Amino acid sequence: MGNKLFKVSSFPHIHANKDVKSIMRDVLISLLPAMAAGIYFYKMQSLYMFLFSAAAAVLSELIWNRIVKGKFFLEDVSSIITSILIVLVMPNFVPLWLPAAGTVFAVIFVKELFGGLGQNFVNPAATAKVFIIASWATLLVNPVEAVSSATTTAPAVSMKDIFIGYASGNIGEASILALLIGGLYLIIRGVIDWRATISYLVSVALFSLIIGKNGFMTGDAVTGLMSGSIFIAGIFMINDFGSSPMNSLGKIIFGLVCGLATVIFKVIGNNSDGAYYAVLVANLFMPMIEFFTVPKFKKEAI
How far is CA 100 from CA 84, 89, 171, 233, in A? Predict the structure, then answer.
């Protein structure tokens, strides 16, 4: 080999004829159905949130690059993708600055501070959601809905409406169908591996049947899977290149860990955002999962 040097770039590393820009473009396209569904069910307020947060993402990255690297440039649209995911996990009634603040936190403190794209060890959008909950939890509760739910019983929603879409919960959780369309596009394009997603969904169903209670997947795995947050986490978050394993066995184990954590937070903790907390827990196990699943090669004597 001599003294020949090889330049190794940051994540993502994929065995395909793709570069980072094309991968990020595909991820952005995959989010369009969920964005369209969110705007349809939550009207103009959700559109304003997408635009405001995207502007915050671009400005924060530009300012960071100016201060640290001495020039303005955007290497890709990953910061905009992060801003979209953050809006998707927000309710529509929050002030516009709230998801924007989460976006700035995710771009600067989760992504750029650790070296930029692919260097984050936790998922930026999930971290931003937890940061917002810890900082401004009261703003995530709609006072009108809180009063009405205390005095009236919520009407039953059909499985068809849950799957196709209806206005309830966070913006991106409105339509499971829209999320599945985006996920199928990413699999077909070879951007994500189906193993982590399927492993996650199967483990959520399995562990919910084992420890389910209070109506969440009590004897009915299909009903329990009908949650938009599970599909956002299972498609877009656990397949994050920087914070998830890259080998096939590691992806399967990662999905299992995340699924177990999701059920613990949702069932035992009664936390509707449990899937996003579960992603962060699984992210912390990722180095250990990769250590035990990456094939080891023995050095041969020359």
Answer: 10, 13, 15, 20
pLDDT value, residue 196: 93
User: Same domain for 169 and 123?
Assistant: yes
Q: What angle do CA 282, 287, 289 make, to 5 degrees?
A: 70
183 and 208 housed in the same domain: no
Sign of the Cα torsion 250, 247, 187, 87 reads positive
Q: Are residues 115 and 137 in the same domain?
A: yes
**Residue 298 resides in a domain:** no
Range of the domain at 21: 15-142+159-191
Place of tokens 């949702």: 266
267-274: long-range pairs with CB below 8 Å, 24+: 267/208, 267/211, 267/212, 267/213, 267/214, 267/216, 267/217, 268/211, 270/214, 272/169, 272/229, 273/89, 273/129, 273/133, 273/229, 274/229
Number of other residues whose CB lies within 10 A of the CB of residue 111: 25
pLDDT digits (tens, 9 = 90+) for 108-131: 999 988 887 778 889 999 999 999
Residue 143 tokens read as 């006072």
Number of domains composing the chain: 2
